[in-house]
Amino acid sequence: MKKIGRQTVAFTHPPVIYTAAAVAGKKEAQGPLGRAFDYVQEKGEGSWEQQESALTARAARMALEKASTAPEEVDYLFGGDLLNQCAGTVFGIRDLPIPFFGLFGACATFGEAMSLGAMMIDGGYARQTLCLAGSHFCSAEKQFRFPLGMGTQRPPTTTWTVTGCGAVLLRNEGPGPRITHVTTGMVVDYGVRDAAHMGAAMAPAAAQAISAHLRETGRNLTDYTWIVTGDLGEVGRSLVCRLLEEEGFYPDSRLTDCGLLLFDNHAQDTHSGGSGCACSAITYGAYFHPRLQTGGHRLLLVPTGALMNLTVSQQGESIPGIAYAVAIEGGM
Amino acid sequence: MKKIGRQTVAFTHPPVIYTAAAVAGKKEAQGPLGRAFDYVQEKGEGSWEQQESALTARAARMALEKASTAPEEVDYLFGGDLLNQCAGTVFGIRDLPIPFFGLFGACATFGEAMSLGAMMIDGGYARQTLCLAGSHFCSAEKQFRFPLGMGTQRPPTTTWTVTGCGAVLLRNEGPGPRITHVTTGMVVDYGVRDAAHMGAAMAPAAAQAISAHLRETGRNLTDYTWIVTGDLGEVGRSLVCRLLEEEGFYPDSRLTDCGLLLFDNHAQDTHSGGSGCACSAITYGAYFHPRLQTGGHRLLLVPTGALMNLTVSQQGESIPGIAYAVAIEGGM
Fold this sequence. Notes:
2 copies of one chain form a homodimer.
Chain A: E1 8-10, E2 16-25, H1 26-29, E3 39-41, H2 48-66, E4 76-81, H3 87-93, E5 100-102, H4 109-122, E6 128-135, H5 137-144, E7 160-161, E8 164-171, E9 178-183, H6 198-217, E10 226-229, H7 233-246, E11 255-257, H8 258-262, H9 265-268, E12 274-275, H10 277-291, E13 298-302, E14 304-306, H11 310-314, E15 321-323, E16 325-329
Parallel strand pairs in A: 2-3, 4-5, 4-6, 7-12, 10-11, 10-13
Antiparallel strand pairs in A: 1-9, 2-8, 6-8, 9-16, 13-16, 14-15
Helix pairs in contact in A: 2-3, 6-7
């Protein structure tokens, strides 16, 4: 049994993150990580949904090309996005002849995909898995909130859905950072009902996953160079810190959020920070993956998701959250 | 490496389907399998979406109760449904303290869940996994087609989304049928654009998964007592037979479809047959699971999914399909 606790698995043969591709939109390229993206879609073609699928197709292809790997050599593809029925992913990857598992973990999908992709390799079912997650600002706003053309005022707690797609190719051997542990989240619902306050909806799930990971591995916050949530933003980050303090963990500046790294919130008017499936996926590829090429650093990546459905929200339901913690160790 | 082909895994320690729970709606209870369901929701409470979540909650609880297992003893929960953002599942299982992987495989989700749930056990990550999929006629029609109140005429090729939820508890040991192989589907797109002709959209994916399974295991159709697709209906079944014949496999009456077993299409006016995530999930629990309690039978269960998104369909996109083949052997 490879489980070392209720939610955590420690890998016997830690899978390697062999390549990472981060594809982004124009606004993302204007932010602090702008120069680090592998490709920037300046102006997409077709509908917003088609543009989202194009980003996904490109990220998948780039992760494969960097590894000089053909789709036929990949054992499984794990992926998802925010669009209903994971349409961004399905139409982005349908030309790839790879056995496919479609996932829905809301904005935590990148963590869910990496977790399952890594377990498939360590479990002996795969030599290579492709794991990806994407999102698009326009298609997400249209689907979850208001059509952009309405020019609706956004409250300060809102986050900005990232346009882009991040893909990683996991492999059973080779150089690169390694996934050593995965801690799988449970659905956590604190009763938040405000779709403009996603950081609050997700913070309890993030705190639950991080504290479970630390307890079950016997580690402390200081065992990591970075503990990085997916898309809580400024408001959500302060909440997760308070919740962790209640559990006896006292975060410092090593605990940050991909949504805070990706945008300059004040200059770019993104309010509380970046969000969406692509937020953690492209921040990993552009910021952390290069820094983990050599040893000495440890990252706990914790993509966070708000499991909101518009229909049941309008019926008065709350927005439960989920988070997946993935422990990654730098290596050559 | 446990893969015996591009898409197929053979298990070293075949996981047991320890319990199965099949929860259904009123119309399903009036069909041929009516007496075999574990629970019939005569009249649900709240919105259609809330009723769908209630079915999921009940199926999950019943699969656990039959095994005298507490949620805390289950390592992972794999599940999904047709509602946007898997809302039927999320709100149905949020009270269960089980690490959760949300899936979207459209109506093939039950096969996707069983595949991953079985790999987690054989791979040594879990002793018990709960795998489920649900759907609801009213919430699905409202979301994908027309509000029921419009009384829209349904063409003869349409299928009838099954109201219900099927859950299975997989275990690493014990009595019960065993999952011996899983064959993971790829996205297959033949360009079908008619949302009232789902059988045609899914048949190519079903034929691809079945023929890959047979080729990679070296088996023939006659090695199985039943080869059962998820929800192709009458029209889709005839198409999958023709596609298999082109591959050199000649199906007889052992190839059938859960959508044909679940309803009496003529008496119940369900046109081409049953469909939806619950179609294969509750047919497995009510019909096949009892028949697989003793040895001598082999089932190839092939849940089928149409990866349709309304927005991109209205933009002119086609409806790709996917299918997951799960080989199950009867046992004590």
